[in-house]
Amino acid sequence: MRRRSMVLTCVLGLGASLLMTGCGQGDALCGAEGPVPQGLAQQDMVGTYRGEPFGTLTLKADGTYALDDWAHYDDLKGKYQHSGATDGVWKLAISEHVEGMPYDTPLTLRSADPSKGGGSFYVSGSRQKPRIAKYSGDPDECRLYEFNR
């Protein structure tokens, strides 16, 4: 009887811990947050990217960016909302992470109005065709706002 009680306690404890912890970014890839391309440099990122589901991001060689129509996911409405345009400065912090690590967010966009875009972004793909992504909401839901060149 005592052994059965001990086994039941262990099983319930394990089940509870699984329910309470959930899945994190390290548990499974959602798509665009793969490894940073080997040898990626700031000049590789310069260009215009089309957003998915909408929007356009232009990273300029002088370290500034323009974002027209940032998409924000509205959990209450269950869809992406148009948040407007913004601009600011950008930086690729390649020296601040380990190349090839899958969960780094080396691209940073700084805006005067963070509600209209900005923050840290994943960079994956290749040096010739980088892909930029950011989670929109809970990472466990794998809802990514992606930009492709």
Helix/strand layout:
Elements: H1 2-21, H2 42-45, E1 47-52, E2 56-59, E3 64-68, E4 71-74, E5 79-82, E6 86-92, E7 107-111, E8 119-125, E9 130-135, E10 144-148
Antiparallel strand pairs: 1-2, 1-10, 2-3, 3-6, 4-5, 6-7, 7-8, 8-9, 9-10
Please, could you describe this protein's structure?
16% of the residues lie in helices and 36% in strands. By secondary structure, it is an alpha+beta fold. Residues 14-28 have low confidence and may be disordered. It is built from two helices and ten strands, in the order ααββββββββββ. A hairpin with an 8-residue loop joins β9 (130-135) and β10.
Which features would summarize this protein structure in a list?
149 residues, alpha+beta, eight-stranded antiparallel β-barrel, two-stranded antiparallel sheet, 2 helices, 10 strands
Element string (H = helix, E = strand): HHEEEEEEEEEE
How are the strands ordered across the major sheet? 1-2-3-6-7-8-9-10
Name the helicity range. Answer: 10-25%
How much of the residues is beta strand, in percent?
Answer: 35-45%
Q: Profile the largest sheet.
A: 8 strands, antiparallel, barrel
Span of the ends, CA to CA: 64 Å
As residue ranges, the low-confidence spans are: 14-28
Number of helices: 2
Quick summary of this structure?
Helix content is 16%, strand content 36%. The chain contains two helices and ten strands, in the order ααββββββββββ.
